[in-house]
Amino acid sequence: MAKLLDKQRYKCALGAMQTVQAIERALPVLHSGPGCAQKLSESTGSSGYFSPNIFPCTSINEKDVVFGGVKKLRSTIDNALKVVDADLYVVLTGCIPEIVGDDSGEVVSEFADADKPVIYAPTAGFKGNNYKGHEQVIDAIIDQYLKKSDKKEKGLVNIWADVPYQDLFWLGNLRELENLVRELGLTPNTIFGYKRGIENIKKIPEAEFNLLISPWVGLSNVKKMEKKFGTPYLHLKTLPVGATETSKFLREVGKFAGVEEEKVEAVIKEHEDYYYYLIERYADLFLENRVINKQFTIVADALYTLGLTKFLVNDLGLVPATQFVVDDTPQKYREEITEEFKKLNFGIEANVSFETDGYKIHEEIKSHDYHGYPLVLGGYYEKEVTESLKGNFLNISWPVQDKVVFDRSYVGYSGGIRLIEDIYTIAVQRFN
Ligand code: SF4
Asked: How far is the CA of 281 from the centre of ligand 1 (A)?
């Protein structure tokens, strides 16, 4: 029987055009119907050198469904190479060409000798959501562009974490992860955002290891790189937010990379001293406001739900109600992720629900006894239900509609402080 999905939090796999867009001077070339890019584009922070409004698109129609759209794809790639000055052209296929059986890979292979690289990722909507599409784009780069390198650069670390644009804080988060890794004396390598792009992509096979910070997105990519380039990987499931998890993060990365323990501890001490100095200054505020935020719920993808749950329990001492993971996490990862929600300080365990239906999530939030005002960190969809319960709401996950985010971050020691600021800024307004 057909089901209705209320308040979906992700897009189809073709939404990975945003992953491509986040790579400086990389151009998505869409082999899809004319409406796909329009529906999938975000208006927040996605204008610039290339924006969804100018992505070349085959705009296939009924005639192409009958006779095939490969001719159009060939001419669209050809013309994109002529008129759009990019470093990397990534053909992304939508539902229609894949349903009618266009061999897009074959067409793309005809451009193997073009001046600029042209690669292809199958991102039909029926194949999965944009988290899977993101993995497909990285796979396409690994399979079709990169080659194994005999040269390995000591201390070079590829960092993989956020899905750009799906998380509005992606840019700041990646920069902060770079900063933390750099402080350990390592050299971070990321491919998204300002002054990264194709030159950093070329360095991927030369890295000493891949660092994946994500419960599941990207795991297949780092495994593929291990196989193809012989690059080992360190998989950390928790996004480090606040002192507890960031110190753990630094220790684990330092150990994996063979960084001297004293050096790691010195970095941690300097950060923790300042972090707790700031916390101490507002200790009274936390104590006075504790009762209004006794229990909390996060509604976000696995990366944020896990990372923020650990932060709110371990650093702020709050008690978790049910936490909702809304990214349609594949079944095979769910058990391990569920176990992570049991690894909280003070013997606390959080109940986690992998639920994509907004209606069911809201019904559960409404029926739970939060022993006071709930604190809900989620998508804009949760604003109304939280307000109906007189709770405190912070919009941290897609869709984000009440703030503009340039390069703010919730990662690291400073990110934890920003998140505390945001939560308590809302809490103190109760008394105005
Ligand atoms: S689901 Fe298919 S038709 Fe719809 S936007 Fe995605 S690729 Fe296009």
From this structure: 51
Q: What is the mean pLDDT of residues 378-390?
A: 96
How far, in Å, from the CA of 336 to the mean position of ligand 1?
A: 31
Question: Measured between alpha carbons, how far is 100 from 49 in angstroms, rounded to an integer?
Answer: 33
Q: What pLDDT does 236 receive?
A: 98
Across 323-352, average pLDDT: 97
Q: Which domains does the chain have, with CATH numbers?
A: 13-145 (3.40.50.1980), 156-241 (3.40.50.1980), 285-431 (3.40.50.1980)
Residue ID of nearest Cα to ligand 1 atom 1: 125
56-80 confidence digits (pLDDT tens): 999 998 888 888 889 999 999 999 9
The per-residue pLDDT of the chain, averaged, comes to 94
Query: b/e string for 50-70 if b means 16 or more Cβ within 10 A?
Result: bebeebbbbbbeeebeeebbb
pTM for the full predicted model: 0.96
Residue with CA nearest ligand 1 atom 5: 36
Q: In the predicted model, what is the mean pLDDT of residues 187-213? A: 97
Residue with tokens 């759209």: 69
Ligand 1 centroid from CA 16, angstroms? 12
Q: Quick one: pLDDT at residue 88?
A: 98
Is 95 touching ligand 1 by the criterion CB < 6 Å? yes
Ligand 1 nearest-atom number relative to CA 15: 6
Concatenated DSSP letters for 243-300? HHHHHHHHHHHHHHHT--HHHHHHHHHHHHHHHHHHHHHTHHHHHHHGGGGSEEEEEE
